[in-house]
Design goal:
about 400 residues; mainly alpha; about 0% strand; globular; disordered N terminus; disordered C terminus
Length: about 400
């Protein structure tokens, strides 16, 4: 779920920058530190690889895990999910290496990203990328590496991802208050990224609960996951009204930012996924009446939230169609079509599992078809941009908007 505020004819810049947003979206930011002598001369292609690149890892990993969780028997689907999981693992290693090179060779740019209100929220993507690949390794990759190795990988990535996510959920809002100081009415769906990361921890932690010995350890992990669910949910309820208020009072987002409206689906779908997965493992971690209460809560919470997610999906899709008619081209923001929709797939599949509803089963299948199509489109365009060098080049100067207003 990454953002680019301005597209280019050939290919977009890989990161949003305040100077490239529309006048209504610009936020004051501290000037970047002075460039280290000789910094950009070393591996210049890494200079503009920002934390938003982790969104491609997230979007790929969830194609594998969501496909494996569908309650339908499609020949070859499991094998395809294994291949996509392997691709996501390779992508994670590649982006981690590129980001390490970015920090080593371009520290001035890395520090500037932290002080950039348009870029800093993407640090939440690192957390979600780690856990998305870890969860897919446990559910799909075990077919290749074995159950024991898959569990070990997931534990390491879950612990690292949760630590990073909790840190981002505190540090990014702190920077927004102390350093970024965004102008009133400039709230962006991107602000949700560091806040939804603990919700991903809640759902991924549920996969590990049965692997702990019965007793305090298992119960503690379950309750910690519910605590992270609440942390993320309440923080989302604070930010989401700001995002909708910005849309109502300032109109549609700039063309390249329009796909980020899909980011709102992330906390909605991920929270539904979390309560259903936690309800699955609650009987082995807590006694009655809590285990039954968690199962009831999964349905009572998940069904209304899924209804709202479908409403927002329709609104976001209409805005994307409008933007496409007005000339929206490819940008890395297209990855916002993947992971958030994938969480809705897993959420609907979990509700279908608990209710036995065929309608919810087919809803998960329909959303998964959309997910695969969006992933293929974003992946192909991103691969082309990497090969051509367009996505790793310096951002082009902003151009005057030419979009129609209707």
């Amino acid at each position: 779920m990454s953002v680019l505020p301005q597209t280019r004819t050939a290919a977009p810049p890989p990161l949003p920058r305040p100077a490239e947003t529309s006048p209504t979206e610009a936020s004051p930011a501290a000037p970047p530190p002075a460039q280290a002598p000789g910094g950009p001369a070393r591996f210049p292609s890494l200079r503009h690889i920002g934390p938003n690149w982790y969104a491609s890892v997230m979007g790929t990993a969830i194609v594998a895990s969501a496909g494996a969780g569908l309650a339908v028997d499609v020949p070859g689907l499991r094998a395809a999910c294994v291949l996509v999981w392997a691709l996501s693992a390779l992508m994670l290693l590649s982006v981690l290496a590129a980001r390490a090179g970015h920090w080593l060779c371009h520290r001035d740019q890395a520090r500037a990203h932290l002080l950039d209100p348009a870029v800093a929220p993407f640090y939440g993507c690192l957390s979600m990328a780690l856990m998305a690949v870890g969860g897919a390794t446990l559910t799909v990759g075990a077919d290749v590496v074995g159950a024991r190795a898959a569990l070990a990988v997931d534990v390491v990535l879950f612990v690292a991802g949760t630590a990073v996510g909790l840190a981002a959920a505190v540090v990014v809002p702190y920077l927004m208050v102390v350093h970024h100081r965004p102008a009133p009415g400039t709230a962006s769906p991107v602000w949700l990224l560091p806040l939804v990361a603990p919700m991903v921890s809640a759902s991924q932690g549920a996969l590990l609960v049965p692997h702990l010995s019965p007793g305090q350890g298992r119960q503690t992990l379950l309750l910690a996951c519910y605590a992270m669910f609440g942390l993320s949910l309440l923080a989302t309820l604070v930010v989401l009204p700001l995002v909708f208020s910005r849309l109502v009072h300032r109109g549609p987002l700039p063309l390249a930012l329009t796909p980020t409206l899909f980011l709102v689906l992330g906390p909605l779908g991920q929270s539904t996924t979390a309560v259903n997965q936690l309800a699955d493992v609650a009987p082995g971690a807590v006694g009655e009446p809590y285990a039954s209460a968690f199962a009831a809560f999964a349905v009572l919470y998940g069904v209304p939230v899924t209804g709202f997610a479908l409403l927002w999906l329709a609104l976001a899709a209409a805005m994307v169609v409008r933007a496409a008619r007005n000339g929206m081209g490819f940008a890395m923001t297209w990855w916002a079509f993947t992971f958030p929709v994938g969480t809705c797939v897993t959420g609907a599949a979990g509700l279908a599992r608990h209710t036995g509803s065929d309608a919810l089963t087919w809803l998960s299948v329909a959303l998964y078809v959309f997910l695969v199509a969006a992933w293929a489109a974003a992946g192909a365009r991103t691969a082309g941009g990497v090969v051509s060098g367009a996505l790793t080049a310096a951002p082009a100067p902003p151009r005057p908007a030419t979009a129609r207003t209707t």
